[in-house]
UniProtKB/TrEMBL annotation:
Belongs to the DNase II family. The gene is nuc-1_2. CDD domains: PLDc_DNaseII_2. InterPro entries: DNase_II (IPR004947). Pfam families: DNase_II. Keywords: Hydrolase. This is Deoxyribonuclease-2. GO terms for biological process: apoptotic DNA fragmentation. GO terms for molecular function: deoxyribonuclease II activity.
Length: 127
């Protein structure tokens, strides 16, 4: 388990500036985005791509959420060999860079597989 936190005086994006480089893995981030939101972060070794759409299933039902209808804040590693899941309290938006907050990350393949399977559409980084 890893815990990441930042103060309101540390004006950075939690996921691209702290979490991805410290976990040494690229992430998909599902957060509530309203303007001015941050685009997918594609500039570094470890990318953070925004999740646009998720789909969850039970034995009898299927649920679909667009990022505009989902207020959760989580990230999941892209790489199954580093199965990280992070649950936090900051969105990927410019105003959030001026807020304090954090995320708790757990390395667990079973939990990771449930989260990664929910990811359906991504704001992809250009190749």
């Amino acid at each position: 388990m890893r815990i990441f936190a930042k103060s309101s005086s540390y004006h950075v994006d939690l996921y691209s500036d702290l979490v991805a480089p410290n976990l040494t893995t690229s992430l998909y981030a599902e957060t509530w985005r309203r303007k001015p939101f941050l685009p997918s972060y594609c500039s570094d070794t470890y990318q953070v791509e925004n999740v646009d759409y998720i789909s969850l299933s039970t034995a009898t039902e299927r649920f679909h959420f667009n990022y505009t209808n989902d207020h959760s804040k989580w990230a999941v590693s892209k790489d199954w060999t580093e199965p990280w899941v992070c649950i936090g309290d900051l969105n990927r938006a410019e105003p959030q860079m001026r807020r304090g907050g954090g995320t708790v990350c757990l390395r667990n393949y079973i939990i990771w597989s449930n989260f990664i399977n929910a990811v359906h559409n991504i704001e992809k980084c250009p190749n």
